[in-house]
């Protein structure tokens, strides 16, 4: 089976072109094996690039533990780059079908290859029960904003946002290993999140600039999370901490985010990089 490794801000996945390759028989098992950083290729998960009846391509994304996720912000940028650079569809604007629906992507092309991708991530889902979380929706729109939650013996204020997948955002003065590594995995599987959750720790640098660290559902700590950065952009506005346009500084690189007041959509701009291709003896 031919594969290509790609990353967006260090959030790396193994991509399989199912336009040209047969669909894997067991994508969950393949994701667990190929993602292993000691015995496999090494990645945060597996993404299948498939034909679609509704869009230019369809993305299916599996975490490193084999669980299938609805959406991946860094992953979809790489899907767009692969689709364009490898000649599947040669258009500057693409539509990609995901578990979140069909999303529009605008490509910045230099020297015949995609360098940056701007993704219309759609409207955030804020109503607590739809995120989903059992935490109370204490805001007028039903969102869980600055809700107290005890995790690993620590009381934290969390804000819950879904970008097609669930996120739990908390703000701290400093992001430390001790707090992040103890709270992150416990928050992911906390009973307040029936579908588990992604967890973002955020430090405010300026109203238009934040530093964040992500514990991803099913993959553990990753160098970046596109949907997580979008959730942080939304949470910052909901809590009155940041402006509607921000730079999110993640371990693997920077993303530009805008929660538009015009259409309520979140827009994410960031890089997409192809690393190498190879053969997996499935």
Walkthrough of the structure:
There is one protein chain. With 282 residues, this protein is α+β, with helices and mostly antiparallel strands. It has two domains: 2-118 and 271-279, Diaminopimelate Epimerase, Chain A, domain 1, CATH 3.10.310.10; 128-264, Diaminopimelate Epimerase, Chain A, domain 1 (Roll), CATH 3.10.310.10. Helices cover 17% and strands 42% of the residues. It is built from four helices and 18 strands. It has helices at 27-35, 73-85, 177-188, 226-238, and strands at 2-8, 11-17, 45-50, 57-63, 68-69, 93-98, 101-110, 113-120, 147-151, 154-162, 166-171, 198-206, 209-216, 220-222, 245-250, 253-259, 266-271, 273-279. The protein has an 18-stranded mixed sheet that branches. Strand 3 and strand 4 form a beta hairpin. The chain is globular, with a radius of gyration of 18 Å. It starts with a strand and ends with a strand. The mean pLDDT is 97.
